[in-house]
Amino acid sequence: MIALYDLNGVVHFPLIKRPDYTGAHSGQISLPGGKAEAGETVIDTALREGEEEIGIRGSQLTVLGSLSEFFVIPSNFLVTPVVAVMHQVPKYVPDKREVARILEGNVAELVSESAVLVKEIVAAGMFQMRAPHFEIDGEVVWGATAMILNEFRTILREGVAR
User: Which of 68, 85, 71, 65 is nearest to 7 (CA)?
Assistant: First the structure.
C-alpha cells in the first residue's frame, strides 16, 4: 500500500525494510502489504497488513484506488497495489518480526526527473543484473516495489503535465 500523508507541506509515504531471513525478499525494501486471507478484498488486505506491519489503522486512511495488478515470480503472488491517504502524520508501531526499519519516501523526490537510477544488483543472493531502482532514505528500492513506485510516479507526472 502506498499510504500518503502530508508533513509540513511535503507528501510522504512509508516503506519497510524486511528483516534478514532465509527467503526471496530478505532485507529488501517493500511497501506495507502481504498475502490476502480467505474472503478478503484487495483493499481489506492492504488495510489489515498496514495495521499489522506498521500500526496504521484503517480508520486513519481514505483509500483512493489501486494500481495495476502484476505477478511477482520470486514470491509467486499476484500483487495489486492500493493507494490511500492518511488523515494525520502516522505514529508507527512496527512489527519487529516483519519490519527491520521504516523508511520515509518523498513524493516530490519520486517524481523528479532524476529519480530512476540503474545499477548492478545481486538478485536472490546469486544473480547479478542491471536493474532500475530508486534510492529512498538511503536504501536501494528495486524489483516489484520499484515497479509499483514507477507506475505511481508515471501517473503523477502525467497528471502534472496536463
Answer: 85
